[in-house]
Amino acid sequence: MLTLFQIENIICDYYQTTPEAIRGKHTRANLEPLQLCHYFSTLYTAASLTTIGQYFGKRDHSSVSHSKKTVINLSDHDKIFKEVMNELSSLFDTLLEINKNKQGKEKLNEDYNVTMAFIQSAPLPILVQMLPILTQKIFEKYNEK
Fold first, then answer.
1. d(Cα 7, Cα 38) in Å, to the nearest integer?
2. What pTM does this model have?
3. String of b and e for 13-45 (b: at least 16 CB within 10 Å)?
4. Phi/psi at 88 (5° precision)
5. Residue pair 41/54 in contact by the 8 Å Cβ criterion
6. The dihedral of CA 43, 45, 50, 52: what is its sign?
7. Dist. CA 56–CA 64, nearest whole Å
8. What is the rounded CA–CA span in Å between residue 67 and residue 43?
9. What's the CA angle centered on 46, arms 107 and 51, to 5 degrees?
10. What's the CA gap between 137 and 37, in Å, rounded?
11. Which tens digit of pLDDT belongs to each residue from 59-115?
12. 10, 90 contact by CB (below 8 A)
């Protein structure tokens, strides 16, 4: 999952605007980025419609729901808008992959630290018996990634 902050920043960069502009008063210039923030937040986060609305300028859940319907309708009828959505989707998918790889590396580091703590504290006879098992487990974990 992504965060609302990540979605907001990608869309702001794409539209060359600021989070303050998106969260502020409605204008034509910030309406499309805001609606896309609402739409992609429903797809890429676990946040509720109420949480999304509150994050993006203290709007209520019905604003988020309306934005989602508007974005879907626009993408069905406007080819250029559909291309924008595809580009943004691609960016979000890439960010998801980066997050997933980062979490995998963090888990691998955590497993390594636990294993090293065990090795440093275990008596030698137990270590000798456990070494083949530990080696196999580490090898399996490493090859999952």
1. 9
2. 0.71
3. eebebebeebbeeeeeebebbbbbbbbbbbebb
4. -65, -40
5. no
6. negative
7. 9
8. 13
9. 130
10. 42
11. 889 999 999 999 999 999 999 999 999 999 999 999 888 877 776 666 666 766 776
12. no
